[in-house]
Design a protein that fits this description.
Tetrahydropterin Synthase, Chain A; about 20% helix; elongated; binds ligand LPXRUNBV; binds zinc ion; metal ion binding; queuosine biosynthesis
Length: about 130
């Protein structure tokens, strides 16, 4: 029998510059993006009385906190991107890792999607 669950989605944006290391092409040079980020969390139980998986406001605050070091930054200078390539894939994993420990016990990360522009994005997920 299938187990019902809820997903919550929040989105945000940040502006930043980066340069892809070891990249053969124009993206190896310093350039910028208006990044769009989508975070989805998942859970099986709602809080008593309020009947929320978690408050959207709290989730947005966690995402804002995760993006703060990146916004208006040269990402290559921001750890761990001083050593890890600042691809959308790695940015999505970074945001996941920043947010996951702060979620309520009953809520888990589901996916993080980072888009440099509307037509292309990278999504990070972990199999259960
Ligand atoms: N899988 C990934 N591929 C690329 C990434 C990435 O993060 N993950 N990033 C880049 C560069 O950051 C680049 O800025 C974006 O490249 P691209 O869209 O190919 O280049 P343009 O903006 O010039 O787009 P065109 O559609 O080619 O005009 C590259 N690849
Ligand atoms: Zn780029």
């Amino acid at each position: 029998m299938s187990r019902p669950f809820w997903k919550l989605t929040v989105r945000s944006e940040f502006c930043a510059a980066h340069a892809l290391r070891h990249y053969q092409g124009k993206c190896e040079h310093l350039h910028g993006h208006n990044y769009a980020v989508e975070v989805v969390v998942k859970g099986y139980t709602l809080s008593q009385n309020t009947e929320l998986l978690m408050d959207f406001g709290d989730l947005k605050a966690l995402l804002k906190q995760a993006l703060e070091p990146l916004d208006h930054a040269y990402i290559n200078d921001v750890p761990p991107f001083d050593a890890v390539n600042p691809s959308s894939e790695n940015l999505a994993r970074y945001i996941w890792n920043q947010m996951a420990p702060s979620l309520p016990e009953t809520v888990k990360m589901y996916s993080v999607t980072v888009a440099e522009k509307g037509i292309q994005s990278a999504t990070y997920m972990e199999e259960e």
